[in-house]
């Protein structure tokens, strides 16, 4: 059977500061494997902001799932948590979009995470996830070379494997990408 490598990766974690850095490294490695290096900075900034929001605000716990998915010409990064409360968004100029932001100040160091996500992404949103949770997501357009198919990994005969998964206790990769050589010639 001929198939493309998986274009989906899921990481479950506790949104703690030490884990956020690990998720950024996992996301960067996965995007390199998919030849999406130009998206790394924006994707890691966006996921950092979403995970920081879970760390600061989510109740009853900090457990969440980060999912990245490449479909056609879009990369979607989403964070699912168990808190059904929808986030409050402040503009970069400190003006709230929704009720609930008080004393927004242009020099504030918090309350701007989703505004930053909006600034670096093509689109973003939030949706309820059942009765006890939500999903906050953003999309990034893929570079033109990837859309045209020229930067995709070569097709090869493989049996379809499960998507990238990460062990929630130790955050070690369960399935590894094949090794790549950097030998010129």
Key features of this structure:
185 residues, alpha+beta, six-stranded mixed beta sheet, 24% strand
Structure description:
This protein has 185 residues and is α+β, with helices and mostly antiparallel strands. 25% of the residues lie in helices and 24% in strands. It has four helices and eight strands, in the order ββααββαββαββ. The protein has helices at residues 17-33, 40-57, 113-120, 144-147, and strands at 2-3, 8-14, 63-71, 74-81, 123-128, 134-141, 156-157, 164-166. The strands form two sheets. Strands 5-6-4-3-2-8 form a six-stranded mixed sheet, with helices on one face. Helix 1 (17-33) packs antiparallel against helix 2 and helix 2 packs antiparallel against helix 3 (113-120). The longest helix has 18 residues, at 40-57. The radius of gyration is 18 Å and the shape is globular. It starts with a strand and ends in a 19-residue tail after the last strand. The relative contact order is 0.21.
């Amino acid at each position: 059977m001929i198939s493309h490598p998986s274009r989906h990766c899921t990481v479950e974690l506790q949104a703690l500061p030490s884990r956020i850095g690990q998720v950024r490294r996992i996301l960067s490695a996965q995007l390199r494997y998919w030849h999406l290096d130009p998206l790394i900075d924006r994707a890691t900034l966006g996921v950092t902001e979403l995970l920081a929001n879970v760390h600061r605000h989510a109740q009853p716990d900090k457990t969440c799932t980060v999912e990245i998915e490449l479909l056609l010409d879009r990369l979607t990064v989403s964070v699912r948590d168990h808190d059904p409360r929808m986030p409050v968004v402040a503009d970069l100029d400190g003006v709230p979009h929704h009720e609930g932001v008080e004393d927004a100040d242009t020099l504030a160091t918090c309350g701007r995470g989703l505004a930053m996500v909006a600034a670096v992404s093509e689109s973003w949103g939030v949706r309820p996830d059942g009765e006890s949770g939500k999903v906050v997501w953003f999309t990034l357009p893929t570079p033109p070379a990837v859309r045209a198919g020229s930067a995709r990994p070569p097709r090869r005969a493989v049996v379809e494997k499960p998507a990238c998964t990460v062990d929630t206790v130790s955050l070690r990769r369960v399935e590894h990408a094949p090794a790549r050589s950097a030998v010129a010639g």
